[in-house]
Amino acid sequence: PWNIAVDFDVDLSLFPHEIEPMLKDYSSEKNVKIDIPYFKEKLFYYTSGYPFLVSYTCKLLDEQILPGKTTWRVPDIETAINRLLKESNTNFDSLIKNLENNPELYAFIKTIAVEGELISYHVTDNLVSLAKTYGILRDEKGNCAIHNRVYEQLIYDHMTLKLIRQE
User: Fold this and answer.
1) CB atoms inside a 10 Å sphere around CB 38
2) Distance CA 51, CA 40 (A)
3) Could you write out the DSSP letters of every residue in 41-80?
């Protein structure tokens, strides 16, 4: 009975309790021992549940870091995140392209990610709304924050390298 032109406002992020069954299924299927409480929390810590990043990190662990191993160890998650940040993938390419193709958005995100400025989160602001749409920003206690630690590091590294090259 309501207006069918309703905003689609669903958070697609995976929370630790949603990451857990994925890890359990993988562990059972591949007969791999995983400290599931630790790995679900660490995956969420680094990715804020961003589905692509959760899946890609697990893929790196499975296929590149621990192929054929029967146990995922605590340091393996940091190894996977470090490798993820050194690799190119379609998600990162799209994120950087969206920043590079919009100088105003780039400058706005640089203010947050590199300069550490606190900026109020208001979705009515065009840049905040655009960055939210691209999955770059989230609301953290009323302020703009980079969506997750992986993006935060990727954006910081990308922007600081550009600054160094310009000097």
Assistant:
1) 13
2) 13
3) HHHHHHHTT-HHHHHHHHHHIIIIISTT-SEE-HHHHHHH
Q: How far is CA 144 from CA 10, 18, 139, in A?
A: 19, 25, 5
**pLDDT tens digits for range 133-158:** 999 999 999 999 999 999 999 999 99
Q: Report pTM.
A: 0.87
Model pLDDT for residues 82-102, shown as the tens digit of each residue: 999 999 999 999 999 999 999
Residue 11 pLDDT greater than 60, yes or no? no
Q: Find, among 79, 67, 74, 76, the residue nearest to 37 by Cα.
A: 74
Can you tell me whether residue 38 is helix, strand or coil? helix
Q: 74 — phi, psi (to 5°)?
A: -55, -50
Q: What DSSP designation does 115 have?
A: T
CB 12 within 8 A of CB 50: no
Distance CA 165, CA 148 (A): 26
**Of 147, 56, 45, which Cα lies nearest the Cα of 95?**
147
For strands 33-34 and 71-72, give the pairing. Answer: parallel
CA distance 147 to 46: 10
